[in-house]
Write a structure and sequence with these properties.
With about 350 residues, the chain is an alpha/beta fold. It has helices at about 15-30, 40-45, 65-75, 85-100, 120-130, 140-150, 170-180, 200-205, 225-235, 250-255, 270-280, 290-295, 310-320, 325-340, 345-360, and strands spanning about 1-5, 30-35, 55, 80-85, 105-110, 130-135, 155, 185-190, 215-220, 240-245, 260-265, 285, 305. The strands form two sheets. The protein has a seven-stranded parallel sheet with strand order 3-2-1-4-5-6-7, sandwiched between helices. It has a six-stranded parallel sheet with strand order 10-9-8-11-12-13, with helices on both faces. The radius of gyration is 21 Å and the shape is elongated.
Length: about 350
Amino acid sequence: MKILHTEASCGWGGQEIRLLEEARGLIGRGHEVSLVCPETAQIFEEAPRYGVPVQALPIGRKNLKGLFALRKWLKTHPVDVINSHSSTDSWLAALACASIRHAPPLVRTRHISAPIPDNASSRWLYQSATSLIVTTGEALRQQLINDNGFDPARIVSVTTGMDGNRFVPGDKESAKHKLGLPHGRFLYGIVATLRFQKGHAELLRAFAEQKDMPCDLAIVGDGPQLENINKLIAELGLEERIFLPGNQHDILPWYQAFDAFVLPTHAEGMPQSLMQAMLCALPVITTPVGSIPFAVEHELSGLLISPKSIHELSTAMRRIRLDPDLCRRLGNSAREIALARFGIDHMLDAMENLFKKSAGQ
């Protein structure tokens, strides 16, 4: 098949990584897959590393320039199906397809749990212009059915797949030495784009309360909240206990160095970093938003706390740090569950079948 992915986001996180991993996997199965995105998007730079053909188009905003550019591209590059990923490129793709003859079907992937406006234009996009809606978890699928009244038959949940042979536990002290991190200190870690909804502010305030034993916090990632995060670190006097390495091409050594993984997110689909941490047998602390409860069962494969609750987060962090047996039990269970539920072949099989179904093959 000829498959086109569109992505308007200029950020870098689980959404963009899933797109590229999925594209790379389907290319490996013999499909012709390509990507269009803004030239300023980080995914434009990263796509060649994944072996995914990419072309820059001005689709970062909802305007006529982006619409005409995408419309022209589709006329000169016929494809069997389009897979859109963000709001802006979904609208541009829908309008472009509506304005050309013999347009390919549009599959819309929803990666987050943010609500969709209940209005006529959104209903047109999701119920008329879109062939199928893919969510990255069943909770997101139910949200669209219950909150928006969308047709259940046209919404499919496909959990993001992870490579369990790559993300594996490692020796923590060796990993810390490799990364230049202090030895003999408990290390909390988060891997996430620095956006407000990921909960970095709550994490920093909860971490500031962990003063009774030596411990550090690694915040891996980059994004629009970097300046605010640095200001809060200074305000809380945490400069000597925080590591900010930015985005990492090879994230595995960081997971292997962490003693616990914390993701106090406010809004989510199924975060890839959470699944990667679970595969690395880390005890995780997170919130029951989006499709996270499909992966993390409280007290079995992690600890669930209320979103934005600094008190609950601080308590869970202290509990994890002071109970090595709990860490081992939660981490071992997390890896077992992740291996059973998040295999990459399951994702590729499902997406391949959905694209064929949409294209009538």
